[in-house]
Sequence to fold (295 residues):
Amino acid sequence: MPILSGRIGKWILALSEFELRFESSKAVKGQVLANFVTHHCGPEIHLVELTPWTLFFDGSSCGAGSGIGIVLISPRGASFEFSFRIDKEATNNQAEYRAVLKGVKLLKEIKADAIEIFGDSLLVVKQLMGEYECNDDILRIYHDECLQLLKEFRLVKIEHIPKCHNGEANRLAQGASGYHPIREISSLEIEESNWRKGIYEYLKDSSKKVERKIRIQAVKYVILEDDLYYRTIDGVLLKCVGSEEANVLMGEIHEGVCGAHQSAFKMKWMIRRNGYFWPTILEDCFKYYKGCQDC
Fold:
């Protein structure tokens, strides 16, 4: 039997009565260390956050056709723009859905893990977020397909933004559809004689005493970015304008660069199509139409 000497020899001798045997340590695999760190990590260890891709989308539909616009921004800030012409018969809401659906498919193709989606269509955004119901049969097809694709991403954020913050996607969509936008209508101070004043002030302060008529009317309106909007039965928001802005709109639609001296009913349809509203829109269109010397 070899002579036991040194510290290791003393431990071997001391442990011999317990039927324990000493063995020198072997190589430890990396997975063992990884498991140890995972199970013993403290609160000071933080997970790395995913940097998302950003998607801006918009759709446009007019008499000339329909189109969609998409802007993708990579986590490093690189921007990629896309525009596609789609079916001429597509409505504006259908174009909006096809825009976000195409954008999500592009992000899936480049294997993005986290995405942020921004659009100015309140209807589409709220339906995808589950806050609005989707009752239209055609829109539901796009809606369900889009939700199914979104489940394949690790992180998804959807947010509604004003149209003024979605300029690039809007420009691409309008260019693809062949639409030539009318000049921008600026927001004006709501004067005393303006029909918007009572509704606007009531929505700003619902505790204020107003006529019962205004309380009933206010249900159909909402304030966004300090502007008053009318909510249609389909959930589409139309910007409310005063008399001066209404005259500008009727002039642009009826006899502007793209105007074709439309009838009063067509003028009303085109004004609402462009996203504007006031209560006497049809009556005012008739007056403008009958007062046109070239008609």
Remarks:
- The first helix runs from residue 6 to 15.
- Confidence is low (pLDDT under 50) at residues 183-190.
- Residues 53-177 form a domain with the Nucleotidyltransferase; domain 5 fold (CATH 3.30.420.10).
- The chain has three domains: 6-40, 53-177, 196-291.
